[in-house]
Amino acid sequence: MSELVRRPDDDSNTHCTPQQYEEMYRRSVEEPDAFWAEQAQRIDWIKMPTKIADWSFDPVDIKWFADGELNICHNAVDRHVEAGRGGDVALIFEPDDPAGDVRRITYAELQRETARMANALKKLGVAKGDRVTIYMPMVPEGAMAMLACARIGAVHSVIFGGFSPEAIAGRIEDCASDWVVTADEGLRGGKPIPLKANVDAALDKVSAKGVLVLRHTGGEVAMHEGRDHWYHEFAADLSEECPCEPMKAEDPLFILYTSGSTGKPKGVLHTTGGYAVWTETTFRYVFDYRPGEIYWCTADIGWVTGHSYIVYGPLLNGATALMFEGVPNWPDASRFWQVCDKHRVNIFYTAPTAIRALMREGKGPVEKHNLSTLRLLGSVGEPINPEAWRWYHDTVGGGRIPIVDTWWQTETGGVMITTLPHAHDMKPGSAGKPFFGIRPQLVDSEGEVLEGASEGNLCITHSWPGQARTVYGDHERFVQTYFSTYRGKYFTGDGCRRDADGYYWITGRVDDVINVSGHRMGTAEVESALVLHGKVSEAAVVGYPHDIKGQGIYCYVTLNSGIEPSAELEDELRKWVRKEIGPIATPDHLHFTPALPKTRSGKIMRRILRKIAENDYGALGDTSTLADPGVAEDLIEGRRNR
Ligand code: WTA
């Protein structure tokens, strides 16, 4: 039996009461055009759209607000200044070092700095439609670079600072991006991250016409004459005014690479109008944001959560968002709570992996700080186990405030399933109810639709404004990946249970994607990295339950003949994967094996490998189709001995 946690009463001007949710949800699915035309009123359009929803999932062609024109940077920045709110703080920067300088950037300053950066991009030669790669630390200039692109109609492709030079090169090449914005170094937990050096190494493999470099730590970097420019010098005498380019609603806004079950990461493409309406609306209702509040999302701008809920969603709402450069456990495990206390944070949004890690440290670090300003907590990125939910609710939230467990994906642009703070009771471990306009459907593996309380694969049957429109440069891959498993439906890749009250419980990925500390990782990517190594003949990678990370990376590796397994080789392969993909892909377990379990037709039986990695030998299921059943026995033996 799941537990029900009653929504706390709130009689201030909450955006959504229980009755309003019911009424608005009903309208959003029965009259989507009228509903979304109304939500879109909160956006400043250069040309008001008359067409609202215009989409098909078979063939796949998705448009929203198609004849509208707008600029999202104008909406996120300039219009607040024009409305007399230029003195309001847009971004608070809390540096990695607790003793470092806090910066408070008002909307007026954000407008000036974004315009200056937009002029710098233009001076480099960036034009409307060009792709700009952003590889930045968690500093306000990272957000400014995104907004500067949007201002001039360039398409940003942000790469998380934890990715390797190889990963950067692959992404630059895939979207033919001629321009890079980076910094000398990033800082995390007191350690410098060599951002510029990584870009240099990437640009040994692929070329770029220009690189803007922010001076952040002051660390030594090499500058390539003619290609690299220090931002502070390059932009010193540039104007702080730059007009916002009028964009069609369906003009691309950004590309964000994300892992899937096969092949290289995909460049998921989001467009301007629908994404603006979707992030504005979801931020407003999910976080129930109230003017003057301090909102903190601990994600990185390199992930979709940072795009939608550090940059676009909050700024479109004129909110004050905190940007934190550091990590939860440095200098000690009270860092998050110290920052909440210091900045009087009202809304705090983080990932279950961080909650689990901090829960281990007990109440002490939390109780050292005054968290009385907190009004709402959020969770995102992976399923939150009820125990961690409880701790978050009772210890961090003092048992008095709601939690929103927001389920969504890079491809969905914003939150899809969640409870709303004062509209729904909560069930620890359940994301909750569909957001406005979202029509989830559970299907079994044959595609039969499941009704009522049931468990199956999660699909969405109708488009929503923030939906990704395509995979950059490969629409066929978009169709294949998301709309072909269950024709005419968007398939999320997640398993899900719906209970008798209509609450949704995400059970995790049902494809070959694993979720490591809230980061999406394709097992195929790790496998290709491993087999690139000269001593590896074959590799199969699966996820297994991990106390802190949610899932860990378990690699079965077959070596070339004549090569003997050793602790040194294990270490070498770990380093190799870090070099190829980045530290987030570091294998947790390397299991050397003379052979992998295969069917007679040569297909690797991943189900068996998953079970063995999970230490679940009783449930191996049918192994009779294995070409050599002895392989499974040997693997179990190997696992037991670890
Ligand atoms: C998982 C992150 C359970 C899910 C915004 C999804 C979640 C993948 C939740 C997308 C949640 C995200 N509960 N699972 N609240 N939020 N997921 O693209 O498996 O990095 O498919 O987007 O994370 O990860 P992505």
Describe this structure in words.
The modification N6-acetyllysine is found at residue 603. Strand 23 (440-443) and strand 24 form a beta hairpin. With 642 residues, this protein is α/β, with parallel strands linked by helices. The mean pLDDT is 96. The two termini are 36 Å apart. The strands form 9 sheets. It has an 8-stranded mixed sheet, sandwiched between helices. Strands 5-4-17-16-18-19-20 form a 7-stranded mixed sheet, sandwiched between helices. The protein has 19 helices and 33 strands. Bound molecules: 5'-O-[(S)-ethoxy(hydroxy)phosphoryl]adenosine.
Overview in brief:
With 642 residues, the chain is α/β, with parallel strands linked by helices.
Characteristic key phrases:
eight-stranded mixed beta sheet; seven-stranded mixed beta sheet; alpha/beta; 31% helix; globular; single chain; binds 5'-O-[(S)-ethoxy(hydroxy)phosphoryl]adenosine; 19 helices; magnesium; 24% strand; 642 residues
Helix and strand composition category: alpha/beta
**How does the overall form come out from the CA principal axes?**
globular
Give the rounded overall mean pLDDT.
Answer: 96
Q: Tell me the number of strands.
A: 33
Bound molecules: 5'-O-[(S)-ethoxy(hydroxy)phosphoryl]adenosine
**Spatial strand order of the main sheet:** 12-11-8-6-7-14-15-26
Draw up the topology in text.
Layout: H1 18-30, H2 32-39, E1 53-57, E2 60-64, E3 69-70, H3 72-85, E4 89-94, E5 103-106, H4 107-124, E6 131-135, H5 140-152, E7 155-158, H6 165-174, E8 179-183, E9 186-188, E10 191-193, H7 195-202, E11 210-214, E12 228-230, H8 231-234, E13 247-248, E14 252-258, E15 266-271, H9 272-286, E16 294-297, H10 304-316, E17 320-324, H11 335-342, E18 347-350, H12 352-359, H13 364-367, E19 376-380, H14 386-396, E20 403-406, E21 417-418, E22 433-434, E23 440-443, E24 449-450, E25 454-460, E26 470-471, H15 475-483, E27 490-498, E28 504-509, E29 513-516, E30 519-522, H16 523-531, E31 536-546, E32 550-559, H17 567-580, E33 589-592, H18 606-613, H19 630-640
Parallel strand pairs: 4-17, 6-7, 6-8, 7-14, 8-11, 11-12, 16-17, 16-18, 18-19, 19-20, 32-33
Antiparallel strand pairs: 1-2, 3-13, 4-5, 9-10, 14-15, 15-26, 21-22, 23-24, 23-25, 25-27, 27-28, 29-30, 31-32
Helix pairs in contact: 1-2, 3-4, 3-5, 3-10, 4-5, 6-7, 9-10, 12-14, 18-19
Residues 258, 303-305, 379-383, 405-410, 431, 492-494, 506, 508-509, 515, 520 line the site of 5'-O-[(S)-ethoxy(hydroxy)phosphoryl]adenosine.
EC number: 6.2.1.1
Modified residues (N6-acetyllysine): 603
Organism: Qipengyuania spongiae
